[in-house]
Amino acid sequence: MMQIIGKSAELQLEKDVSTRYLPVVIAAMIFLAALAIGGLFSLSNAISDWSATLTGNLTVEIAFDPTADLDKKVTDAVELLSKTPGVAAARAIEQEETLKLLEPFLGRNAALGDLPIPRLIEVIIDEDSAIDLAALNEKLGEAVAGARLDIHRPWLDKMVLLGRSVQILAAAIMLLIGAVTVIIVIFAVRTGLIMHAEVIQVLHLIGARDQYIAEQFQNYFARLSFLGALPGLIVAIIVMFIFNFLVGSLEASMLPPLSLGVEGIIALLLLPLMVALLTRFTVRRVVLGSLERMM
């Protein structure tokens, strides 16, 4: 079998003007696909982190009251929660830590300390615990005025739904990019078949088989796709690094950095090879089908 990196012997497809800009188009498609993959895996990792962080973690909010002793309320709430069966730990969140949580929304401002900020308590539930959260919330409200239990579930469900929707959109974009790439390759191959029709007829006369001619086309276009995919992937990786750098340099940024994980990195590295194989398969089907109609 002819090597992919080899030249197309008799057809000399390397001299075709029609395929001169095909690597540029492939590079643009791979650039967009790589960004879509980056967003897809980053969202997947973010959703997993949200679920792992918030599952089993609750927050008790004690409303701000300038006339009440908030420190005593926090102490009473922590004591009640610590004695509750099914609660692994209860920790009062200091005011400075609460202000840091507000920085992504309000920025760093000395006036934050003057705001009527509620007091917070972090609660960790034992795994496989059958604790009645509604009853606990009612008991807490009766023991400590202004205390309310927040289970995070409605917020987490909305964030997961948003993340899954964006993931579906990213997957649809990848499918669209793949379809457009296939269509572009098909048009380029058919143009090449028309330009080399006379040479193909001569090859048929001297006994060349359709598989031999298809092999020259598929090797050539697979090589173009692979060489075009590499710079597109490199530029996409550079853009991801720049994005993470900008996110990290912003103070109190609400944007999460791109985190691909091992699976995402492998998917990105395999992208040029997958495009080359897809191109090779597409070209072979198109060429063999066209040659059968020419006979």
Automatic annotation (TrEMBL):
Gene Ontology process terms (BP): cell division
Listed InterPro entries: FtsX (IPR004513)
Transmembrane feature ranges: 21-41, 168-189, 224-246, 258-278
Superkingdom to which the source organism belongs: Bacteria
GO CC, alphabetical: cell division site; membrane
Alphabetical UniProt keywords: Cell cycle, Cell division, Membrane, Transmembrane, Transmembrane helix
PANTHER family: CELL DIVISION PROTEIN FTSX
Protein's name in the database: Cell division protein
Originating species: Sneathiella chungangensis
Lineage per the UniProt record: Bacteria, Pseudomonadati, Pseudomonadota, Alphaproteobacteria, Sneathiellales
